[in-house]
Specification:
The structure is a single chain. By secondary structure, the chain is an alpha+beta fold. The protein has 2 domains: 140 residues, no CATH class; 152 residues, Phosphoenolpyruvate Carboxykinase, domain 3, CATH 3.90.228. It is 24% helix and 32% strand. It has 6 helices and 16 strands. It has an 8-stranded mixed β-sheet with strand order 3-1-2-4-8-7-6-5, covered by helices on one side. A 5-stranded mixed beta barrel has the order 9-10-14-13-12. The longest helix has 22 residues.
Length: 306
């Protein structure tokens, strides 16, 4: 199926640049890893919804403030295909270009571009409420993934557990057990940053992980904590007993690449992502953690990272 056909009534008319009629005049700064992100052109309803959603991460941007911009434009409902959302599974289309990335979803289309620097535009007919927040976050997650890429890092679908000031990052496809291991961590008195998306970046001295305000079954929270040094990256597999198997650098990069959403499908930015991931895995133990639901994987992890 061609890009946007299931979401847009006229996919060929996808906006050629970040322009249009703003949804409103409100502005908001949101502090996420790689931020601040400056949200422009918001309606009053959108501003209120986003301020509630991101809480203490929000502020009013000063005149002349700099950051990664995301502009919101008003679209007519007729530009979108009407979708029966009963039983809806969130999904969207990507179209990759050398200087831009196009995104289409339910009642939304977005453009990430580098002209001359990274910025985004979102067009939607939604003004507030849960559907607007869903549409907005579809775009916001993609933008933050590309921003972390610029900074030498990556956004990873992962669960992150913190204990005694260091973090373990658990990777795996849907159903591998990321939320399960997060619940085991909470039951053992450890902290969880997120059971869905976490931000990693390499520094001269360590690989660091930062909390994103997105989560899966555990629900989103907005606390600004970290960053924390990463003790290990673990691809998780449920098994009868707890064990650790180290991965080679090449196998580690491959394991992490599969968990780097949005960017890992972009042929124009893939070489940079691969370089970033190699820098990350070279500095920290990376392996396969087999864990049992009735066991305790923490001694195995501590031994592997000692």
């Amino acid at each position: 199926m061609a890009f946007g056909n299931q979401f847009l009534t006229e996919p060929a008319l996808f906006p050629a640049r970040c322009a249009g009629l703003p949804a409103g005049e409100a502005r908001l700064a949101v502090e996420l890893p790689g931020g601040p992100y400056l949200l422009e052109g918001l309606s009053a309803g959108q501003h209120a919804a986003l301020a509630r959603r991101y809480g203490e991460r929000c502020s009013s941007p000063a005149a002349g403030a700099r950051g990664t911009e995301l502009r919101v434009f008003r679209a007519d409902p007729s530009e979108f295909v009407t979708i029966d959302r009963r039983g809806w599974t969130n999904r969207f289309d990507f179209e990759y270009h050398e200087r831009s990335v196009h995104v289409a979803g339910s009642q939304t289309m977005a453009r990430i571009s580098w002209q001359p620097r990274l910025a985004a535009a979102l067009w939607t007919a939604l003004d507030a409420g849960g559907e607007f927040l869903e549409a907005f976050e579809n775009c916001f997650r993609v933008l933050s993934a590309y921003r972390l890429l610029e900074l030498g890092g990556a956004i990873l679908h992962s669960s992150c557990v913190v204990s005694e000031g260091v973090a373990w990052v658990f990777l795996g496809p849907s159903g591998a057990g990321k939320t399960t291991i997060a619940r085991l961590a909470l039951a053992s008195g450890r902290a969880v940053l997120s059971d869905d998306i976490n931000a990693l970046r390499a520094t001269d001295s360590a690989a660091l992980v930062e909390k994103m305000p997105f989560a899966g079954e555990l629900g989103p929270t907005n606390e600004r904590v970290g960053p924390f040094p990463v003790a290990a990256l673990a691809r998780i597999e449920q098994a009868a007993r707890d064990s650790w198997r180290p991965l080679s650098t090449a196998a580690a990069v491959a394991a992490v690449l599969g968990c780097a959403p949005f960017v890992n499908g972009d042929p124009y930015r893939l070489p940079v992502l691969m370089d970033n991931l190699e820098s990350l895995v070279r500095g920290i133990p990376t392996g396969v953690l087999e864990f049992s639901l009735g066991g305790a994987p923490w001694p195995v992890l501590e031994a592997a990272t000692a």
